[in-house]
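Hi F.,

I've been meaning to write this up properly since the lab meeting, where we talked about keeping a consistent format for the predictions we share between groups. The idea is simple: the sequence comes first, exactly as it goes in, then the structure tokens exactly as they come out, then a line or two of notes. No screenshots and no reformatting. I'm using this chain as the first example so we have something concrete to point to.
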Amino acid sequence: MTDDLKLKIYPAVIAILGLSLVALLMSRLEIQVASDVPPADLVPLRERSPSPVPPAPQPSPTASPSPTPKAETPIPSPSPSVIAPAPAAPSEGGLRVSNRTTFPVRIALLHQATAADVPPEQVTYEQPVHWDFAPEEGEAKGLILSLPEGSLRLKAGDVLVAFAQDGSRRYWGPYVVGRTPAPNWSAAEKEWSLILQP
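Output, unedited:
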């Protein structure tokens, strides 16, 4: 190589290495901006100033005959609530899960740490646990779930949810043990049964 060529290549190589070093440092740099003021949409409703609403008109105490009788419009009865009253089933039992779907699913459990008869604002939960199921795993008889430290005992108020792990955004639940239609109590087996259907 000639000296003239070396004088042109070395600065170019040094410039490329310098830019690479700056790019590497910039990729490692993380900037965070924090604000102590909560956004307006996160402020609880009771703290917001209520908008003025005119009072509803009150009916007069005297009855006035209507000129033409109107046919009454039937009002549909409200649909049954998702959370039903607790059944008379025992409060504790094992859990058997059947995945009858074609999706790999994860079953997550929030186990109550407090008694089921405490007010809702005092309910506390233990650390959540989960189990993974392959498509159609346990579809015939189901699988009994357990914890690493021993058997699993569901009680009224525990919360179960299942969701597909294939990115399809499908989920089943949430189920509140003893308050929602699923899981079902089997008196013969003395266990709760959760069957995931497609």
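Notes:
The helical segments are 3-28.
Residues 71-87 have pLDDT under 50 and may be disordered.

If this format works for you, I'll send the rest the same way.

G.
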